[in-house]
UniProtKB/TrEMBL annotation:
SUPFAM superfamilies per record: P-loop containing nucleoside triphosphate hydrolases (SSF52540)
Top-level taxonomy: Bacteria, Pseudomonadati, Bacteroidota, Cytophagia, Cytophagales
Annotated InterPro entries: AAA+_ATPase, ABC_transporter-like_ATP-bd, ABC_transporter-like_CS, P-loop_NTPase
Start and end residues of each ABC transporter domain: 2-239
Example of a GO MF term: ATP hydrolysis activity
The entry's keywords: ATP-binding, Nucleotide-binding, Transport
Domain of life: Bacteria
Protein name in the entry: ATP-binding cassette domain-containing protein
Length: 270
């Protein structure tokens, strides 16, 4: 579990995080939800260690990260897997080499054979067992996200941070990627944090949702609770989503269907 306590961050007098306290729970998909410019990326950057907060603390499974010694911070960072918005694959390396890269960096004691086995295992886990020799330019956006996930989990990460994993994907592919992240989170009991403004993700994989608005946490809860939340800013956010508007129209015309029903349509592989 990651505990974030009273986090504050300003840029040139502009306060972006205004005393955020929340937990990112183990074995759950923790969604950082909110509109543009509400501080989701800054919050995650502070947690990952790419930015230093002005105030507050971050604790990873009982170990304080903020202001601790370099070796403690490095040890925690080694346990973090990142899935970047644009997948951020190395274009000049094959898919397999991309997945092997963090193993070469982080686990120098691993033998070549162990590394190859781990790459094979991770590619299989994300459904890309036959794509190892392909170049990133030869695969689809959904496949690139899968490679990004395989690369993130390759060094046996304890924490997985995903920056808008659905960006640039069509809705069906987005749902499959969400489902894969959720499966991996639950299967390996990883603490996963996902930046999103996608209501599809909320109703699909929102084990724990933290709603940010103008640098403050206004609400947290799960996907079953969110539709009944009585926070005006959250309600406005939810009910401006095209998914929820479509569900409401269906409900008005055909009776109650439920948002989960819309999100649970069977999909083909991507
Ligand atoms: N390095 C920086 N220097 C100055 N201001 C910054 C910096 N990084 C972020 N900001 C400001 O912090 C605010 C929050 O940005 P942030 O990227 O966290 O929003 P967000 O919720 O992730 O938005 P989006 O969903 O659009 O990505 C914005 O006003 C942004 O301009």
């Amino acid at each position: 579990m990651i505990e974030i306590s009273n986090l504050e961050k300003s840029f040139d007098g502009n306060q972006v995080l205004k005393g955020i306290s929340c937990t990112l729970e183990t074995g759950k998909c923790n969604l950082l939800l909110g509109g543009s410019g509400t501080g989701k990326s800054v919050l995650l950057s502070c947690v990952v260690g790419l930015m230093k907060p002005d105030l507050g603390s971050i604790t990873f499974d009982g170990t304080v990260y903020t202001n601790s010694k370099v070796d403690i911070r490095q040890e925690i960072r080694r346990k973090i897997g990142m899935l970047f918005q644009g997948s951020a694959l190395f274009d000049s390396m094959t898919v397999a080499k991309n997945v092997e890269f963090p193993l070469q960096m982080l686990t120098p004691d691993m033998s070549l054979e162990e590394r190859r086995d781990r790459v094979e295992f991770c590619l299989k886990r994300v459904g890309l067992e036959n794509a190892g020799n392909k170049m990133p330019s030869e695969i689809s956006g959904g496949m690139k996200k899968r490679v990004g996930i395989a690369r993130a989990i390759a060094p046996n990460c304890t924490y997985l941070f995903c920056d808008e994993p659905n960006s640039g994907l069509d809705p069906a592919t987005s749902i499959k990627i969400d489902e894969l992240i959720a499966e991996i989170t639950h299967e390996y009991n990883i603490t996963t944090a996902i930046i999103t403004h996608d209501m599809n993700s909320v109703v699909g994989i929102g084990d724990h949702i933290i709603f940010l608005h103008q640098g403050k946490k206004l609400w947290d809860g799960n996907k079953e609770e969110i539709l009944n939340a009585q926070v005006p800013e959250l309600r406005e956010f939810i009910f401006s989503s095209s998914l929820v508007r479509a569900a409401k129209r269906v409900e008005e015309e055909d009776g109650p269907q439920g948002l989960e029903h819309l999100a649970a349509e069977p999909l083909s592989e991507v």
